Automatic annotation (TrEMBL):
Cited Gene3D superfamilies: Enolase-like C-terminal domain, Enolase-like, N-terminal domain
Keywords recorded for this protein, A-Z: Lyase, Magnesium, Metal-binding
Organism: Kibdelosporangium phytohabitans
Main EC class the enzyme belongs to: lyase
Cofactor: a divalent metal cation
Name recorded for this polypeptide: o-succinylbenzoate synthase
GO term, biological process aspect, one: menaquinone biosynthetic process
Claim: Lyase is one of the keywords in the record: yes
Length: 368
C-alpha cells in the first residue's frame, strides 16, 4: 500500500456514568481517532490513552505531537507500507507504544480491508462470540455500588470487575459477595494503588474467591508482584506492567502473575498483542482483553483479538450502552453475556459520519 492521507479527529463522548479508578476520574472519553487513506482502502484506529498521563505515561497531546512530527513522517516515507513493516519504520522512535499502536492499527485495518479480510481472521480468531465482562468504577457508597452491579447482572454480564483502592477494597468486595452470592465471577483491579507493605491487608481479599486481583503494585515492580504472589491465594493479573511479549515472558518466569490482561493500545498494537497471547498460551497462562472505554472503533478491533484461543477469561469488553448513550459506529449489543466478533472486512464496523461529526472536537490533516 501507499499512504495518501492521514487525518486525526479529536472526539469527546459523554460516558453514561462517571468512571473512577484509584488513579483517575472522568465523565467523558476525550481521545482521538486516526484515519489512514491508502491507494487501496481506508483504515481507522482509536488512541487508547487519555488527555492526562494518569494510567500510562502517554497522553493525548503528546501522542498527537509524536505522531505528527515523528511517526507519520517515517511511515509515509516508505515505498511499500504494510502492517508488519510499520513497527520497523517506527522503531527508531523510543517508547510511545500507544501512539505507535494507533498508527499501526489504522494501517492494519486498511490492509485487511484491501484484502476483504476480517481482522479476526487475520489475527487467528477461533470464536465468533466472546464473554463480556464489565469494569465497575469506584462509587460514593456501597449501596450505590450494589445498585450499579445489580443493573449489570440483570443485563447478563459474564463477570464483574470492581475498581479498588486503599479504603475501598475489602468492604465493597464483601458487600458484593454477600448480595450476589459465591457463583458470581468477581475480580478486582487496583491500578497500581498498593505497595508490598499492604500485603497483609490484601490477604483480606483471599476469603472472597476472587478470579484475580489486577495490578495491585506499581507498573515497574515485577519483583514486588512475585513476592506478593507468594503471600496471596488470589491469582495476580498484570495490566500496566506488561508492555511487550518480552515483559510477559519475564513476569511469568518470575512468578509475578498467573493471568495477563492484554490491551493492544498499551503494548504497541495488535501484532505485539498477539505475540503476548502466544507467549502466555505457551506457558499455560490465561489471558483476556482489557479496555480503555473505547468507542466502537477500538472495541471492534479488541473483539477480533479476544476471539483468539488463549482468551479464555471474560474480557473488559462491554456493550456500547455500558459506555455511551450513542456510539460512533453501529452499537455492540449484549447477547447472553457475550458480544459478537465482527465478521466484515477490517474491523468490520463503519464510523457513522453524521454521528462522528456531532462528537468531533477538532480535526487535523497530518499528511497529504
Ligand atoms: O485498568 O483496566 C483498566 C479503563 C481506563 C483505564 C484503565 C482501565 C480501564 C478499565 C475499563 O477497567 C475497561 C473497559 O474498557 O471496559
Ligand atoms: Mg487494569
Amino acid at each position: 500500500m501507499k499512504i495518501e492521507r492521514v487525518d486525526l479527529i479529536a472526539v469527546r463522548l459523554p460516558l453514561v456514568r462517571p468512571f473512577r479508578t484509584s488513579r483517575m476520574a472522568g465523565t467523558d472519553r476525550h481521545t482521538f481517532l486516526l484515519r489512514v487513506t491508502t491507494d487501496t482502502a481506508e483504515g481507522w484506529g482509536e488512541f487508547g490513552g487519555d488527555p492526562e498521563p494518569l494510567y500510562s505515561a502517554e497522553f493525548a497531546a503528546g501522542a498527537h505531537r509524536v505522531l505528527r512530527d515523528h511517526l507519520v513522517p517515517r511511515v509515509v516515507a516508505q515505498d511499500t507500507v504494510t502492517t508488519a513493516r510499520t513497527a520497523v519504520a517506527m522503531a527508531p522512535v523510543k517508547g510511545n507504544p500507544m501512539a505507535k499502536a494507533l498508527l499501526e492499527t489504522a494501517i492494519l485495518d486498511a490492509e485487511c480491508r484491501t484484502h476483504s479480510m476480517p481482522l479476526a481472521t487475520y489475527l487467528g480468531a477461533v470464536r465468533d462470540r466472546v464473554p463480556a465482562g464489565v469494569s465497575v468504577g469506584i462509587t460514593d457508597t456501597i449501596a450505590g455500588l450494589l445498585d450499579v452491579v445489580s443493573g449489570y447482572l440483570a443485563q447478563g454480564y459474564a463477570r464483574i470487575k470492581l475498581k479498588i483502592e486503599p479504603g475501598w477494597d475489602v468492604e465493597p468486595v464483601r458487600a458484593v459477595r454477600r448480595e450476589f452470592g459465591d457463583e458470581l465471577a468477581l475480580q478486582v483491579d487496583a491500578n497500581t494503588a498498593y505497595s508490598l507493605v499492604d500485603a497483609q491487608h490484601l490477604r483480606g481479599l483471599d476469603e472472597f474467591g476472587l478470579v484475580q486481583i489486577e495490578q495491585p503494585l506499581g507498573e515497574d515492580d515485577l519483583r514486588g508482584h512475585a513476592e506478593l504472589a507468594k503471600l496471596l491465594r488470589t491469582p495476580i493479573c498484570l495490566d500496566e506492567s506488561i508492555r511487550s511479549a518480552a515483559d510477559a515472558a519475564v513476569a511469568i518466569g518470575l512468578g509475578a502473575c498467573r493471568v495477563v490482561n492484554i490491551k493492544p493500545s498499551r503494548v504497541g498494537g495488535y501484532l505485539e498483542a498477539r505475540r503476548i497471547h502466544d507467549v502466555c498460551t505457551a506457558q499455560g497462562i490465561p489471558v483476556w482483553c482489557g479496555g480503555m472505554l473505547e468507542t466502537g472503533v477500538g472495541r471492534a478491533q479488541n473483539l477480533a483479538l479476544a476471539g483468539l484461543p488463549g482468551f479464555v477469561l471474560p474480557n473488559d469488553l462491554s456493550a456500547s450502552s455500558r459506555y455511551y448513550a450513542e456510539d460512533i459506529t453501529e452499537p455492540f449489543l449484549l447477547d447472553n453475556g457475550c458480544l459478537s466478533v465482527p465478521d466484515g472486512p477490517g474491523s468490520g464496523v463503519t464510523v457513522l459520519p453524521e454521528t462522528l461529526s456531532r462528537y468531533t472536537v477538532s480535526t487535523e490533516t497530518l499528511y497529504e
